[in-house]
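<goal> How does this chain fold?
<sample>
Here is the protein in question

***
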Amino acid sequence: MTAYEGADRVAEVYFGVVEPPVVAQRDITISAPVSSQQTEEKPLECSGMAWADGRLILASDRHGLALFTCPIDLRHMTIGMPTAHVVIGNEQELLDDAESLTVRVGRRGEPIVYVLCSLSNDPDELPLPKRRHMLRMALRDLDPARVARPVVLSAGKVRDLINEHFEAVGIEAYRTFHAEFSGGDRNTYRWGNVEGMCFMPDGRRVLLGMRNPLLGSHALMAVVEGVDEAFDARDPSRFRLVDLFAIDLGDRGVSDLAWDPLTKGYLIAAGKSAGPKRSKDQAFPPNTLDSALFWWSGHKLDRPILFARFPDMKVEAVCRLGPTRFIAVGSDEGDVSEGRPQQQQSVITILYFTGVDVGHRDR
């Protein structure tokens, strides 16, 4: 491993500990309204992020109408506090459970932002349309943000295409425990969760990573074409699923992924999901965060390579910080429902990472 000196081992990263390969860390939790109809403010819960023009662009799976920008001074390696920006003006187009965010440069040289909701059913098993929304928009400025050409489409077609493959090969849908469910089985039907998205190097295909369900012990990945065609035509039928396969992340699913131009591979954040509650005596949610970072070549026959573990952090997002040797990790550290003693909620950690030794196979 070439990520840091003495890197013949896998790094372990902890909250509050800034030592190599970690160079900076900050709790960036702020609160913002969850919609224009509700004045209640909730904390930012980082679910996806990407780098653009000196700032992280953050999605929060609690905030259906806003994205966040967070400045980082790469020279002094200091992390600023985020600002919320309303990007959805129509309550019918809210992004419920937005889990994936990616950015690429458009033809006019401006950042084009894509946000995808999880495609899952809600905790009460409802197949809400707003959980299948996908947003594309241009950012003219970032301070303050000026949104141009926003379009929200239903990505339900993508879920339907993936589900056809699930049924064909017998992949069971994901269920997890919901104590307040009024039905008989409190392990409610969620279908699955798409939590990672990025454009592949050809700029045409989009790679999606699923947190759940797993295929045995492997995480599921989907390749989709026609994304910009669908947005240009306002026609979701243009989405095409061209591949569905599995990679070994050690019993973990994908919580985010990003193409890394420096190492010519994918950065994958991975973690275990709570799953169903099997007995009344089972602690729930289980205290098995087991978040990790992998590097993957993009070749299906190559196994992803583990390069960092996060024993006490719940990693939800990862990206390269522009042309630097540093990557940023976004984590959700303290959802009250998890009963955890620390309530930082959203934390950004910056690590030095320049690649891996392809012979390193620890998982």
